[in-house]
Amino acid sequence: xxxxxxxxxxxxxxxxxxxxxxxxxxxxxxxxxxxxxxxxxxxxxxxxxxxxxxxxxxxxxxxxxxxxxxxxxxxxxxxxxxxxxxxxxxxxxxxxxxxxxxxxxxxxxxxxxxxxxxxxxxxxxxxxxxxxxxxxxxxxxxxxxxxxxxxxxxxxxxxxxxxxxxxxxxxxxxxxxxxxx
Length: 181
Fold this sequence. Notes:
Number of domains: 2
Strand order of the largest sheet: 1-2-7-3-4-5-6
CATH topology of the largest domain: Umud Fragment, subunit A
Mean pLDDT: 79
CATH class of the largest domain: Mainly Beta
Radius of gyration: 20 Å
Number of strands: 7
Largest sheet: 7 strands, antiparallel
CATH superfamily of the largest domain: Umud Fragment, subunit A
Number of helices: 4
Shape: elongated
Helix content: 25-40%
């Protein structure tokens, strides 16, 4: 019986690993600008417009973040966005989806279907945006990891090296936890 359980766990482990790799490859080579995984997208913060003196715990919640953090954004209908939500959106004038901003909603006009946002570290509001420009609401952040991802994206040799190390570690973990002994 123990052998069967270990065999099933081993199969599940490799299925999950292949799913992760397949997802990464799909994201890398898919040109769609609205791609997501189960309704979530990730972004790397490029500026300090949302940097504040909030605690690390609040940074993990996505309440504040700084350059190099990784954001987890849940794709959300604009009608469900409220004042004080931190949202990711396509700024006006950049319809190709090549640039995104993530700021806090400071005003919402439900009648006109528009929003005013502002970075917590900024002293001015952003230009008004239409509801169709909103991608989603920030649900979490991982401090500093975005810097690592940016480095990997910019250096293919580093990416290959990290992938090999990752696969070796997974193989060792698999042998250790799922061995017959």
